Amino acid sequence: MAQSELYIQLLSNVHPPRPPGMSTPLLQHELVRETVLPCLHWRHPDTPLESELRERFGTEQISCGLEEFKQHVIRQLDKIGQQKPEKSSAAQSACDFIFIDAAPEDMHLTEKLMRCLQEYDFCDISVPLQDTRSALDAMRDLEENYREADIVLLLYHTASQAWVREHLLNCRKAQRKRSFPHHLIAVCQDRPENEKGIGITLRNLQVFYCPDLLAEPCLQTLVGQIKGKVQA
Questions:
Q1: Which of 18, 57, 142, 226 is surrounded by the fewest CB atoms within 10 Å?
Q2: Using H for helix, E for strand and C for coil, what is the string for the chain?
Q3: Of 20, 48, 83, which residue constitutes the final position of a domain?
Q4: Which domain holds residue 103?
Q5: For residues 146 and 202, what is the distance between their CA atoms, to the nearest angstrom?
Q6: Which pTM does this prediction carry?
Q7: Phi-psi region of 116 (alpha: psi -120 to 50; beta: other; left: phi over 0)
Q8: Predicted confidence (pLDDT) per residue in 90-103, tens digit
Q9: CA nearest to 186, candidates 220, 135, 226, 215
Q10: How many whole angstroms separate alpha carbon 185 and alpha carbon 204?
Q11: Contact at 8 Å (CB) between 89 and 122?
Q12: Which of 26, 53, 83 finishes a domain?
């Protein structure tokens, strides 16, 4: 019941083993009353109820054919669906997997940005493997993240232009192994001298100039772009 949205009870005069004085329909009825579930009680018109059940359920029961009862169920489910609160855009965006990549000298920024994005309700986030004692493990981790991520954020801080180009090409390689392209590949640069460009264009690639990536104005711009790509 805890995982249900609607409780449907089929009424009859069948008597399976129960404690004296407690029939199966009444036991079920008492249990569901302890929840907040909407209920539908159905019995076939050709099945008369005992007086005790008839008095307990009264007008709550629906006596009709099965096909007609199906329509009652559909209408009730539609009503329940209309009453559900709409998910916020942040909650919808949180379903996407975000990978934040940076050069070794900028790795401290990835953890900080991850915590900032978590405050915006993004929860599926990854950063590069910190233990780089094994170059092979680090490479595999990078490849897996590029393949699994829906959104890739490259931090163009103190990294070289060659580093950014190499990792954008890694994105392109990873897209061949995906069933659909990355929703967004964002290069976040914080220095005016980086604005000369990186010389690569990719599907869904965007370059953001953020003097302070962790400042609220830059974060809001980045978050807005992520949400826009997810909802598109």
A1: 18
A2: CCCCCCEEEECCCCCCCCCCCCCHHHHHHHHHHCCCCCEEEEECCCCCCCHHHHHHHHHHEEECCHHHHHHHHHHHHHHHHHHCCCCCHHHHHCCCCEEEEECHHHHHHHHHHHHHHHHCCCCCEECCCCCCCCHHHHHHHHHHHHHHCCEEEEEECCCCHHHHHHHHHHHHHHHCCCCCCCCEEEEEECCHHHHHCCCCCCCCEEEEECCCCCCHHHHHHHHHHHHHHHHC
A3: 83
A4: 89-231
A5: 14
A6: 0.57
A7: alpha
A8: 444 446 899 999 99
A9: 226
A10: 6
A11: no
A12: 83
Number of structural domains in the chain: 2
In the beta sheet, which residues pair with residue 209?
A: 189
| Identity at 84, one-letter amino acid code | K
Residue 41 above 70 pLDDT? Answer: yes
Q: Domain check: are 227 and 144 in the same one?
A: yes
| Measured distance CA(46)–CA(32) in Å, rounded | 25
pLDDT for 197-227, tens place per residue? 788 888 889 888 887 878 888 888 888 888 8
Q: Is the dihedral of CA 177, 178, 179, 181 positive or negative?
A: negative
User: Among positive and negative, which fits the CA dihedral 64, 67, 71, 72?
Assistant: positive
Residues 52 and 95 in one domain: no
Instruction: Count other C-beta atoms under 10 Å from residue 221's C-beta.
Output: 15
With cut-offs at 50, 70 and 90, classify the pLDDT of residue 145: very high
Q: What is the distance between the alpha carbons of residues 186 and 225, in angstroms, rounded to a whole number?
A: 9
> 16 Cβ partners below 8 Å, 6+ apart?
24
